[in-house]
Specification:
heterodimer, A: alpha+beta, Ubiquitin-like (UB roll), 5-stranded mixed β-sheet, B: mainly alpha, two-stranded antiparallel ribbon, 19 helices, globular, ubl conjugation pathway (chain A), Hub1/Ubl5 (chain A)
């Protein structure tokens, strides 16, 4: 179980617990349930690399405590 | 200049009509080349020509959420605000199905509730196929009546949040609308009778009886809507609902009665119960409390989520479990608590009964989203 931090630099900072083999799409659903936006409106980025929905966190090498950027579509 | 609303246009729902589309999507449309090239200086007449050239509907797609030409035209209509007659003409025209869908969409955004139902419901009879652009850029097959159903029942379509409209039965009870008459009324009657004999009829029967008391049309509409909406999802929802209940330890009346009887017969259970009751009481009580909270929360969420399930079903479920488990337990003595605790331990393999409340909560959210529990 890892915990990632998503920050949108406008005041929304969310800590989400998830598995390493969750996909980005699942992570977006979890974030959506915490922030209240819709999951398809969320874009998760790491410095211009937009993370795609069907790839797992493990493949993106997202580890425990890592910060991701939260943008909106 | 090009993006400003016509100054003579009236405000829709208290705001600039273009604000019906949210900021980010709006900016995407303004930056789109189709908007800049083709939609510049369109009037109501030239808009019709552009609408006839449409060949798909959809919201934003692709990695950078590009809007479709359908959305650009919707935006243009919001900007120039054609008259209601023109919009109704769009809807009534039979030749161009995309023009029809465009008109229907615009009416859904800007019209008043009774107009929306009045003009959009005849479109339920249009079974033609339309091409729909999915968010990942591929085309999906859809039908006109599916799209209309989505417009009337959900509050989000094509990446635009649809304004809230009153439910149909509210308008019917106000007298603003007549009861809904479907073209397939006779077919549905036959189906109703057939299904009643097949299905595990408890709740259906109650719904049907309530119809008879209520007088046919509104409840029948509801049932029909329920059927129409959930024809596809019914089996899935129903099974999921039943399993869901059982997993949560809420169970159905029958199961609990059976357990209760079984436990009462066995003496050694009762002896063990009394021994455990001492030190496990606190943990039990805490879990009961948490279960009750969870149940209340879920009930609330369930209520708002289940649109396709008939309301009488909800009422029946609520009536059944309206007495809190504590009170039920107090009536029958210790066995119900014991059986519930046993059932809880056996059937919660999705981690929602984890000791750490944070992890239990996270697992509960994951289960509701359909994800596997956290691996610790």
């Amino acid at each position: 179980m890892i915990e990632v931090v998503l920050n949108d630099r406008l005041g929304k900072k969310v800590r989400v617990k998830c598995n390493e083999d969750d996909t980005i799409g699942d992570l977006k659903k979890l974030v959506a349930s915490q922030t209240g936006t819709r999951p398809d409106k969320i874009r998760i980025q790491k410095w211009y690399i937009i993370n795609k929905d069907h790839i797992t966190l493990k493949d993106y090498e997202i580890h425990d405590g890592m910060g991701l950027e939260l943008y909106y579509n | 200049m090009a993006n400003r609303t016509d100054p003579a246009a009236k405000s829709i729902r208290g705001t600039n009509p273009q604000n019906l589309i949210e900021k980010i999507v709006r900016s995407k449309i303004y930056q789109n080349t189709y908007w800049k090239e083709q939609c510049f200086g369109l009037t109501a007449e030239t808009l019709v020509d552009k609408a006839m050239e449409l060949d798909h509907i959809g919201g934003t797609y692709g990695g950078n959420r590009k809007p479709t030409s359908f959305m650009c035209l919707v935006m243009k209509m919001l900007q120039i605000q054609p008259e209601k007659d023109i919009v109704v003409e769009f809807i009534k025209n039979d030749d161009y199905k995309y023009v029809r869908v465009l008109g229907a969409f615009y009416l859904r955004l800007t019209g008043i509730d009774s107009d929306i139902y009045r003009y959009l419901e005849p479109l339920y009879n249009d079974y033609r196929k339309v091409r729909r652009k999915s968010p990942d850029g591929n085309f999906i097959l859809a039908h006109v009546d599916e799209v209309i159903d989505e417009l009337l029942t959900t509050d989000y379509s094509c990446d635009i949040a649809l304004p809230r409209i009153k439910k149909r039965w509210t308008l019917e009870s106000l007298g603003a609308l007549d009861a809904r008459k479907s073209v397939l009324e006779d077919d549905f009657e036959e189906e109703e009778e057939k299904d009643e004999n097949e299905q595990d009829g408890l709740e259906e029967e109650v719904a049907h009886e309530k119809d008879y008391y209520r007088g046919r049309s509104p409840a029948r509409d509801r049932e029909r809507d329920y059927r129409r909406d959930s024809q596809r999802h019914r089996d899935r929802d129903y099974d999921r609902d039943r399993d869901y209940d059982r997993e949560r330890g809420r169970g159905r009346e029958r199961d609990r009665d059976r357990d209760r009887d079984r436990d009462r017969d066995r003496d050694h259970y009762r002896l063990r119960e009394e021994k455990e009751y001492g030190y496990e009481r606190d943990r039990d009580r805490e879990r009961e409390g948490r279960e009750r909270d969870r149940r209340d929360r879920e009930r609330g969420r369930r209520r708002s989520r289940s649109r396709s399930r008939s309301r009488s079903r909800d009422r029946k479920r609520r009536a059944r479990s309206s007495m809190s488990p504590r009170m039920r337990g107090a009536e029958d003595g210790k066995p119900p608590e014991e059986s519930k605790k046993k059932k809880g331990k056996k059937e919660k393999d999705d981690g929602t009964d984890h000791l750490d409340p944070e992890i239990a909560e996270a697992n509960r959210i994951r289960a509701s989203l359909g994800l596997k529990p956290l691996k610790l």
